[in-house]
């Protein structure tokens, strides 16, 4: 197949071997592809987060945080737009800039994790997997509970 395509090449090409692209050109292409990938990941995370704002299946803020992270690598303007969002921007900024969670956010996250853990335990029964998931969720709750809270705004 490769032989056939070489014979069809125009005469001005000559030997049929294309020159290698310059090093910078390859880096530009790969960088653009990587940015597109990060934008796609960010868009999917934000989309899932927005759907979860209306359908409480998964936590909204976690997916928005993943979107902020991915947009930071692929599209800083969209990252800033998320960080300035009227509803979610403050909690996203608190986490990204200071690793802080509001008390309300902690309570909501730990309650959601607890419900998820109870549902998992009821569904799977008492198995080593269930105990492992429970231990992981308990560790996550402890991590969230020990994050600092922002100063109350007056």
How would you sum up this structure, described in words?
This protein is 72% helix and 0% strand. It has helices spanning 2-7, 23-54, 60-74, 76-83, 89-98, 103-124, 128-145. The chain is globular and about 55 Å long.
Brief digest:
72% of the residues lie in helices and 0% in strands. The chain is built from seven helices and no strands.
Keywords, separated by commas or semicolons:
154 residues; mainly alpha; globular; disordered N terminus
Secondary-structure map:
Elements (H helix, E strand, L loop, with lengths): L1 H6 L15 H32 L5 H15 L1 H8 L5 H10 L4 H22 L3 H18 L9
Helix pairs in contact: 2-3, 3-4, 3-5, 6-7
Q: Could you give the order of the helices and strands?
A: HHHHHHH
Share in helix: over 70%
Strand % is under 5%
- Most strands sheet: none
* End-to-end separation: 73 Å
Computed Rg: 24 Å
- Rough shape? globular
Give the rounded overall mean pLDDT: 83
Give the number of DSSP strands: 0
Low-confidence stretches: 1-11
Helical segment count: 7
| Helix-strand makeup class | mainly alpha
């Amino acid at each position: 197949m490769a032989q056939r395509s070489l014979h069809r090449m125009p005469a001005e090409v000559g030997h049929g071997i294309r020159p290698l692209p310059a090093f910078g050109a390859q880096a530009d292409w790969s960088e653009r592809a990587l940015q597109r990938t990060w934008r796609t990941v960010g868009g999917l995370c934000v989309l899932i987060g927005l759907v979860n704002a209306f359908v409480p299946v998964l936590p909204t803020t976690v997916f928005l945080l993943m979107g902020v992270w991915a947009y930071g690598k692929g599209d800083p303007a969209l990252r800033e737009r998320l960080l300035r969002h009227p509803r979610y921007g403050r909690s996203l900024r608190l986490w990204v800039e200071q690793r802080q969670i509001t008390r309300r956010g902690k309570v909501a996250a730990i309650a959601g994790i607890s419900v998820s853990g109870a549902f998992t335990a009821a569904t799977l029964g008492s198995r080593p997997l269930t105990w492992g998931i429970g231990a992981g969720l308990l560790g996550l709750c402890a991590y969230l509970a020990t994050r600092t809270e922002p100063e109350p705004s007056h």
